[in-house]
Request: fold
Amino acid sequence: MIDCETRLYINGEWREGSAGERFEVVDPATGEVIATVADATVEDAQAAVDAAADAAADWAARSPRVRGEVLRKAFELMTAQEDRLARLITRENGKALPDAIGEMRYATEFFRWFSEEAVRNLGSVSVAPSTGARILVHHKPAGVAVLITPWNFPAAMGTRKIAPALAAGCTCVLKPASETPLTMLALAEILEEAGVPPGVVNILPSQKSAEVSSRMLHDPRVRVVSFTGSTQVGRILLKEAADCVVIPAMELGGNAPFIVFDDADVDAAVAGAMVAKMRNMGEACTAANRFLVHEAVHDEFTEKFAAAMAALKVGNGLEDGVTVGPMVNEKSRAKVASFVEDAVAKGAKVLTGGSAIDGPGYFYQPTVLTDVDPASECLCDEIFGPVAPIQRFSDEDEVIARANSTEYGLAAYVFTGDMKRGLRVSEALEFGMIGLNRGIMSDPAAPFGGVKQSGLGREGAHDGLMEFLETQYISAEW
Ligand code: NAD
Reply:
């Protein structure tokens, strides 16, 4: 068993759930139970919303500089505990330690970025053209925010929401994924030490996600729901949010195309593909899901990419040299295996990998497939694992149409030596984020988010702050 906090964090206190129930957290590399965590009920959810609502006026009244300094302190404390928290992420999520350290740096940076954005809540004054009255525009904290996060980035998906909420002057209740609740509970201790007052941040692990979130979204004091997870659950939450017209921010699923043109630097494209596919074992919403490679460079790209994938070291993420950990659980591994079986049944060739690895743990081999039939399930659904299906193309318009033929619109990648083409194709792609000659685009200073059924709103950048602010306009005469 791991030595860490496992109770609910409500109003600055550590509590057992009101029903006294607990659920298990499993290390995906070993299949062993590493902790049991208090399971919040709807009564606990109500207590957390009450605490957040009671703390709201005081937190909103603190000056932006004071709120910013609390966030800056959180950045410093989290940085000092990087190694401990990265190991905790590896234990509960499975990702290899280098990936967990990468996540920690990304996650921590949201506190620094939003400590700086806290003091940039700008309004405006203008003169009404027809009446000469003054138009004063300013932005106020929206109110209590409900934050719901997935298991694939146990730290970053939380800090990407908590930091802007606090910078804006909102208080919040965060429900982490039940696969990975420990990192957010550890963060609560850090936030307390950084000076976050009781009730401003409440952490509510629960296996009763639907009931708990429904109760919170029907409390009229809750004004924002910021969700990261699957499109399927996002749709449910949008419907739940409709009853009290709660402001939705939705970071949902993706189906990212990775396009390599014939004028691309193939070695750079392979290096980019390794990051775009294998960061987090492919368990990322931005993960390259479909490789579309020009026929002139197809064989060279495919051969080099398959060799790089075959050279990866898979294993327990805490072991030296391991860069690929297990899938988060057996269900995820079985889904990945079924995608490969389906593609192979439809004629795909396996260049490397193609099988699960014997237990313990939920490991799957890094896999490259070529000659993938367009009707294969892995091209339509999110793979969310270490499998790369490659297809050929011959024409720019054709590849744009194929890339856009999905209901998702989160991330896309384009590799080309011709920047004019790169920008032209980027503009034509119906995706919220483009990696142009880059295999990674996540950056706290950039607006992260999708179009179409990949989401609503943006996280990070100044846009992330605006998600937690409401605009008020005062028509004034003086
Ligand atoms: P999920 O949708 O199953 O769960 C996400 C969260 O919602 C978890 O906390 C879960 O407990 C909770 N939840 C589940 N059912 C719920 C319900 N009925 N009502 C309220 N809450 C509920 O997603 P996941 O499996 O944890 O994560 C993988 C998904 O997340 C993928 O689709 C991935 O693309 C997406 N994701 C998106 C982004 C992004 O920024 N766009 C980032 C990371 C992950």
About this structure: The pocket of nicotinamide-adenine-dinucleotide is lined by residues 148-152, 157, 175, 177-178, 209-210, 213, 228-230, 233, 236-237, 251-254, 285, 382, 410, 450, 455 (CB under 6 Å). The longest helix spans residues 97-117. Residues 256-443 form a domain with the Aldehyde Dehydrogenase; Chain A, domain 2 fold (CATH 3.40.309.10). The chain has a mean pLDDT of 98.
